[in-house]
Amino acid sequence: MTLRTTDLGTGRQTLTTTAFGYGAMSLAGAYGPIDEPAALKLLQEIYDRGVTFIDTANIYGLGLSETILGRFLEGRRDDITLATKCGIEPKGEAGKRSVNGRPEHIQEQIDLSLQRLGTDYVDLYYLHRPDPDVPIEESVGALGELISAGKVRSIGLSEVTAQEIRRAHQTHPITAIQSEWSIFARDVEEYVIPTCAELGIGFVAFSPVARGLLTDRFDPEALGESDARHKFPWFAPENLGHNHQLANKARQMAADAGLPTPGLALAWLFTKAAGADLKLSIIPGTRYVQHLDELLTGLDGQLSVELVAALDALADEVSGDRSFSPAWVSGGREALLPRASGAHSM
User: Fold this and answer.
1) E strands along the chain, which residues?
2) What is the pTM of this model?
3) What share of the chain is helix, strand, coil (3-state, %, to 5)?
4) CB-CB contact of 299 with 270 (8 Å)
5) 172 C-beta neighbours (distance < 10 Å), count
6) Which part of the chain is the NADP-dependent oxidoreductase domain (predicted)?
7) All domains of the chain in start order, with CATH
8) Strands, DSSP E only, in 46-119?
């Protein structure tokens, strides 16, 4: 199976990859258990469907996701566009970690990631979060040095503001910006996406189905005790019931359009990106092949102007913010998350 591709970035820093990728946080059990044999089988199914863009990070399972990917990559490395990240301290639990954008930390973490991944380079290396105590120019300068060293082929940033993007891009060409973007999470449309389009920077959207809310089998009662979603306001007891019912509106629209809800969610994103003249790749994560196939239907979904407008309206009804801490995401630092309450530490 051959999937359509997209060009992230411009000029010498252009990275051509599939417009549909795989977010490998799920391999580390963030949304429920998956053992290594099942993870490797899932990766094979993903590969067989033509998905060759795989995104991970050093903190996913404190190296577990990278380690599993390293085993899968044996004999396939040249076929895969591989992205990983640094910049969040790889210790502690989600929601309580600190950031670290110091050059020496970046240089240390790339070597550890390459060792786990079993490769001598990654195609795209992100600063996972900007460090408020380190000028972004210093962090990006260190990332650029990794290109010169042959360890990295292009660089990106995750959850950065439009202003941070401009400062970073002046230091070294940025290939991709990664952030959460979905029917329910739209703050990046205000400043970040127009900036990416203007500068020719690609955009990589994570959590495109709102961490599972925009699927057809989401069960609010089935979240396990260790499920990472408990840390996010959308899934707090006071918000979850409302948001689940709001997602039912999207499910009905999907049914009327003849699409599974995840397919509708991805088709909406591609439609919005086309309207913004934005180069987009989407990296949903899943542990199930059936979910993967439902997501892939979004690559070919054709949405009417009326349907897009109806989906656009849902974001205003979401209860709670997309992050446990406004400072942790670009929209929070750009004062675009007005519903913030009960913020946790990073």
Assistant:
1) 5-8, 15-18, 22-23, 53-55, 81-86, 124-127, 155-158, 176-180, 202-206, 280-282
2) 0.95
3) 50, 15, 40
4) yes
5) 18
6) 21-315
7) 5-333 (3.20.20.100)
8) 53-55, 81-86
Token pair in block for residue 219: 């069960």
Query: CA 201, CA 185: separation in Å to the nearest integer?
Result: 20
pLDDT for the residue numbered 95: 64
CA distance 166 to 220: 40
User: Would you state the pLDDT for residue 340?
Assistant: 43
| Residue 156 β-bridge partners | 126, 176
Place of tokens 């079993």: 118
Q: Are 100 and 130 in contact (CB under 8 A)?
A: no
Per DSSP, 135 falls in state: -
Between residues 81 and 340, which one has the greater pLDDT? Answer: 81
> Are 105 and 86 a contacting pair, CB within 8 Å?
yes
| Residue 25 C-beta-side C-alpha neighbours within 13 Å | 16
Report the C-alpha gap between 115 and 134 in whole angstroms.
Answer: 26
What pLDDT, on a 0 to 100 scale, did the predictor assign at position 305? 96
Q: Does 47 participate in catalysis according to the annotation?
A: no
> What would the two tokens of residue 143 be?
């990332």
What does the alpha-carbon distance between residue 267 and residue 272 come to, in Å, rounded to a whole number? Answer: 9
Which helix (H) or strand (E) covers residue 71, if one does?
helix 64-73
- pLDDT tens string 188-234: 999 999 999 999 999 999 999 999 999 999 999 989 888 889 999 99
Rg of the chain, C-alpha, whole Å: 19
- Average the pLDDT over 36-45 and give the result: 96
Q: What pLDDT is recorded for position 33?
A: 87
**Model confidence over 121-145: pLDDT tens digits?**
999 999 999 999 999 999 999 999 9
SS3 of 176, please? strand
Catalytic hit among 22, 60, 125, 126? 60
φ and ψ of 73, to 5 deg: -70, -15
- Candidates 184, 159, 183; CA nearest to 240 is 184
